[in-house]
Design goal:
Elements: H1 24-33, E1 40-44, H2 48-61, E2 65-70, E3 73-78
Antiparallel strand pairs: 1-3, 2-3
Length: 83
């Protein structure tokens, strides 16, 4: 039996009504690109768990960058585009 084909509607979503157009983390990544290979402190958190979770999330969001946490401090650096 043949399954019915899903009919897709192609449409760009409207802009979000909340949040910030560019996050401070995006700005930090742009700054890291100016000094490839150099580590920088991106942010200090009040809880180490928040810091570690952010580092993990950023690794998948920003290819070509490295992120790590030490205690409550988030570090990052730009290492170049990954092909």
């Amino acid at each position: 039996m043949k399954r019915p084909t899903a009919k897709l509607i192609w449409k760009t979503p409207p802009p979000a009504k909340h949040g910030h157009p560019a996050s401070p983390l995006q700005d930090a990544c742009e700054q890291l690109r100016k000094k490839p290979g150099k580590w920088a402190i991106i942010r200090e958190y009040t809880k180490a768990t928040s810091c570690g979770a952010t580092a993990v999330k950023l690794r998948s969001q920003y290819p070509g960058h490295q992120f790590t946490s030490r205690g409550t401090v988030l570090y990052g650096r730009y290492i170049g585009e990954i092909s």
